[in-house]
Amino acid sequence: MSLSDSKMNLQAGEKAEAMIFQGPHQAFEWMQLPIAELKQGEVLVRVLYATICTSDLHTFSGRRTGPTPCLLGHEIIGEVVAIGAGQVLDYHRQSIAVGDRITWTIYAHDHQGAMAALGLPQKSPDVFKYGHQPFDHTHPLSGGFATHCHLKSGTDLFKLPLSLSYQEAAPLNCTHATIAGALRMAGGLIGKNVLVVGAGMLGLSACAMTTESGAQAVAVLDINSARAAKATAFGATVILSDSPQLQAEQIASMGGVDVIIETSGVPEAMEKSLDYLNIGGICVWVGAVFQQRDLHINAERVVRKLITIKGLHNYIPADLDSAIRFLEKHHQDYPFHSLVSHTFPLENLGLAFEFAQDSKFYRVGIQTNKFSSTKKHK
Ligand SMILES: [Zn+2]
């Protein structure tokens, strides 16, 4: 399905439908919800497509603690079907209209607040994060696994390039925006050697983006050799061996590593990869978003090698803008479309989650616009 397909409008008296997360490994509860009146600056979208992010899977399995009940799903694209009073502008200060196909920052925040002024809007105290909020009857449509999503004022909106498919566009506002943020924090990459740790969706995005940012070599480390091999289609030039000795030789022959983009969150991989950094190297950690043991790091080595370690959680709106521009330009250069291997209807969300737990799938998609309350829910 392409974003240029025919447009839809909100029907009078239309109700929203959602699949609500009740707790780890429990059945999702189907709910019909009224569509609340929009306040000034708010937008209602009909969800066109959503993908199950790895962090949704962590919540579903209990590895990550999330509120319950909760409407999950944050990798979402939608079509604007209603707008609150007054004019609503997108990130580029262009007017939003009914019929626009959009993505949006994973969170709404106070643009005038202190954290926004610090350049850390994702940590604003009032932040409202789509797909992560406790279920609230005053604003129930807060996630992607529903027919509609109610966007708060303070959400940065972006019109989508119509050349993208649903499957390409849905992961933009989590996966690709996070990697765009990691590249921003890593600094310039021209002529540098990059190591991407973890070859899941984030890692593959990192391979393609670092390649297009001028990296000289892009090595990939993943314990799953099939996943690691897939990275060559996304620009990776070196697939690191499982053997520690061979791995060290591969790193030495490429001239060491200047930048690490760490997406796995696996302590052993985080520790090992630091050994490969050259003097002055920068490591950006984005994968460790679930509970894990403390790391063992040799501080003297960090000091003597002038190593910088940075953490990134979520991203800033400019990163989503970078990600959209990257994908618009390069979506045909890399097989992003193929990373969403299967699409389930919303009413089969539970089945989709069980299916998505198999690590051979990068993303499973949820198609919501043909939802019918007469179907069975699993
Ligand atoms: Zn995510």
Can you tag this structure with a few keywords?
single chain; 378 residues; alpha/beta; Quinone Oxidoreductase, Chain A, domain 1; Rossmann fold; six-stranded parallel beta sheet; 24% strand; disordered C terminus; binds zinc ion
The CATH homologous superfamily of the largest domain corresponds to Medium-chain alcohol dehydrogenases, catalytic domain
Strand content: 15-25%
Number of helices: 11
Give me the secondary-structure category: alpha/beta
Order of helices and strands: EEEHEEHEEEHHEHEHEHEHEHEHEHE
Bound molecules: zinc ion
Oligomerization: single chain
Q: Give the beta-strand count.
A: 16
Quick structural gist:
The protein is of the alpha/beta class and 378 residues long. It contains eleven helices and 16 strands.
Map the helices and strands.
Elements lengths: L15 E5 L8 E5 L9 E9 L2 H8 L13 E9 L17 E8 L5 H4 L10 E2 L18 E4 L3 E5 L6 H4 L5 H12 L6 E5 L3 H12 L4 E5 L3 H6 L7 E2 L4 H10 L3 E6 L4 H9 L1 E9 L13 H6 L3 E4 L5 H14 L9 E6 L3 H8 L6 E5 L11
Parallel strand pairs: 9-10, 9-12, 10-11, 12-13, 13-14, 15-16
Antiparallel strand pairs: 1-2, 3-4, 3-7, 3-16, 4-5, 5-6, 5-8
Bound molecules: zinc ion.
The site of zinc ion has 5 residues, from loops.
